[in-house]
Write a structure and sequence with these properties.
Two copies of one chain form a homodimer.
Chain A lengths: L5 E7 L7 H17 L7 E10 L13 E7 L2 H11 L6 H7 L9 E9 L6
Antiparallel strand pairs in A: 1-3, 1-4, 2-3
Chain lengths: ~120, ~120
Amino acid sequence: MADQTYKILLFMKRRPDISVEAFRDYYESKHAPLAEKYSSGVSRYIRRYIDPQPHPETGEFTDGPDVITELWFDNEETYRGTLAYITTSLMPDEIIEDEKNLFDRMAFRIATVVERESDFSNA
Amino acid sequence: MADQTYKILLFMKRRPDISVEAFRDYYESKHAPLAEKYSSGVSRYIRRYIDPQPHPETGEFTDGPDVITELWFDNEETYRGTLAYITTSLMPDEIIEDEKNLFDRMAFRIATVVERESDFSNA
C-alpha cells in the first residue's frame, strides 16, 4: 500500500474454557477499554475475530488464532518504540491480570507485516 | 468498521525449501499476476507477508503463516459465492500447479473475520 502506516499484529487464542461468544464479548466490553488506556500513539486499534472456514483439501481451520489484534501507527518512531517495548517487556500488571481472564497467554505471538496489493484501478 | 466490506483471509506457509525472500519474490512476480486473472469481483487483493517478532514470554513466532492473503469484496453476493467456491472446490489447474512451486499446500487455512475497532476520534 502506498501510505506510510506501521502495523503490529498480535495473534492470540482464547482460554479453552471460554466460548467464542464470551471471548469476543469480554474483549470488547472489558479488555479493549482497558487496553485503550495504554494506547497513546496508536492511530488504530482493531480486533479481527477469526471465523474458521473449511478448506476443501486441508479441512477446518482448527489451529489458528481466535483474534488478530492490530495496532496501527502513523508515526514511525512511536511504532518502533512500541515494537521494542512489547517484544522485550511485560505489559503493565493491570493488563496482564485481565489477559488471564481471556487468553491462553502462552499462545501469544507477535508479527509485523510487509504488504503488497494488486492494482485493480484499471480493471 | 463502518463500511460494508467483505473479506476472505487465506493463511499460507511457504514450501520449506524456499527462503522467505524467494517466496515473496515468486508470489509477487509470478503467482499474484496469475491469480489476478481469476479475481473478477475482488475489490482488493492484498498479500500481507508476516515478519515474526519475539514475544517476551512465548518467544519467536515460528508456527505462523508466511503470508495472510486477503480478498476483499464490495458486493456481498460475490463474496458469498467466492467463499462457497473456495471452501468446497479445487482451484483451476493452472493455479494449483503454480501453488506447488510456492506453498506448503497442506498448511492452507481459510477464515473470514468480524472486525471491531476502537474509536479514537476524540482522543
